Amino acid sequence: MRYQFYDQLTRQASYIHDNLTVLHDVQASPFNPWSYTWLGRLSNATLETGIRITRRYEKLGFNIDAVSYQGKTFPVTERIVDEMPFCNLVHFKREGVSSDNKVLLVAPLSGHHATLLKGTVEALLEDHEVFITDWADAREVPVTDGTFSFDRYVTYLINYLEFLGEGTHMVAVCQPAVQALIATAVLSEQKHPCTPKSLTLMAGPIDTQQNPTRVNQFAQRYPMEWFRNFVIMAVPPGYPGEGRSVYPGFLQLGGFISMNVDTHAKKYLNFFQNLVAGKTEDTERFRAFYDEYLSVLDIPAEFYLETIERVFKNNELAEGKVTYHDRPVDFSTIKKTALLTVEGANDDIVGIGQTEAAHKICTKIPKTKRLHHVQEGAGHYGIFSGSKFQQHIRPLITHFINKHS
After folding, report:
1. Which helix (DSSP H) or strand (DSSP E) does residue 299 occupy?
2. Per-residue pLDDT tens digits of the chain, which is 405 residues long
3. Which has the least CB within 10 A, 157, 225, 265, 405?
């Protein structure tokens, strides 16, 4: 009923949004002299702020049309190359460029859409053939397609690595670092030819006991029964996934915002002031970030609950208790896959040392195939986007992949 109430509330807010949009379009029209006055800009700023507050943010596209490669610009074609109920594998083909360095970029299934990694994709496309996991919004997946568990996530990654074939490099951002490491171990134990050539784990919760953050403490504070009763809801009527148990995206977003309420409030205030002042570049940057940040998806309940229990409560990887389809996972079988771990010095979601712990778990990887990097001045999102990523982390990943190809 709580999800249904939220859904009704947002649908009603859409009427207010539409009316505010009409008023804004009239007042902000370049043919309206009022729009060029200080009072006009103040009025338009008030209306646009109201529009953004009452808006329901839908998934954006990647919209990557071209990429620079060796000093030239090449068109990029985006297409789905493999479809499964809970995920599409999307390929960004650089027309006219051939490359042996295939990269499987594993996007997190933690509330935001894979398009949050648009900047990551664009940066990696300069040197690599990029494929990304585009996870489905669980409310759009019919109940008849079954459940999506922790182990099924790992299976999806294994299937994608087999689909892409030998020589693939895997890069996992945040939450899927866990599943990516497990998938690599499973394939390594089988001596499978499609075991990734290299594995890059970026800000992933491998050992959640290292420098616990508020996210880790929150997961430990409440019993599993609390999570089942309070955050798990049924998709309301009107969606393909009606009746499916999910962790709603709006709850996840509320959690993200609550961690930095003052920061978000300040950004909205600055946005309002920049609108009044006519600072176009700053307002466009704000719109681009929040259009993506406020667009969220629902997570399958079984996957969310198992992640809370297995990763954050039981810390199964660090404790050596991880299983895949009830069989123990042996990380010592990872011998040929090169391992790069990346952390942000200012990360308030995944603490320092949590990702580096992968090196302690994978005991048989030679020293020549290991590297750990801590990026000074980078928070959680700075690990995979922004200036720090562009200047320091992306070149590091590319060099590592090329070295171990």
Report:
1. strand 299-300
2. 678 877 777 777 777 877 778 888 887 788 888 777 888 888 888 888 888 877 888 899 999 999 887 778 889 999 999 999 999 999 999 888 877 689 999 999 988 999 999 999 999 998 999 999 999 999 999 999 999 999 999 999 999 999 999 999 999 999 999 999 999 999 999 999 999 999 999 999 999 999 999 889 988 999 999 999 999 999 999 999 999 999 998 888 887 787 778 888 898 899 889 888 888 888 898 888 888 888 899 999 999 999 999 999 999 999 999 999 999 999 999 999 999 999 999 998 999 999 999 999 999 999 999 999 999 999 998 999 889 999 999 999 999 999 998
3. 225
Beta pairing class for 169-173 and 129-135? unpaired
Calpha distance 16→188 (Å, rounded): 55
Check whether residue 6 and residue 42 sit in a common domain: yes
Q: Please state, as a whole number, how many other Cβ atoms lie within 10 Å of the Cβ of residue 257.
A: 14
Q: What is the CATH number of the domain that holds 319?
A: 3.40.50.1820
* Domain assignment present for 221: no
Q: Are 340 and 400 in contact (CB under 8 A)?
A: yes
**Same domain assignment for residues 180 and 329:** yes
Q: Is 277 domain-assigned?
A: no
Q: Is residue 44 part of a domain?
A: yes
Domain identity same for 189 and 75? yes
**Domains in the chain: how many in total?**
2
What residue numbers bound the domain in which 143 lies?
A: 66-216+299-403
Within a domain: residue 262?
Answer: no
Cα dihedral 60, 61, 67, 73, rounded to 10, equals -110
Q: What is the 3-state secondary structure (H, E, C) of 36-95?
A: HCHHHHHHHHHHHHHHHHHCCCCCCCCCCCEEEECCEEEEEEEEEEEEECCEEEEEEEEC
Same domain, 114 and 14: no
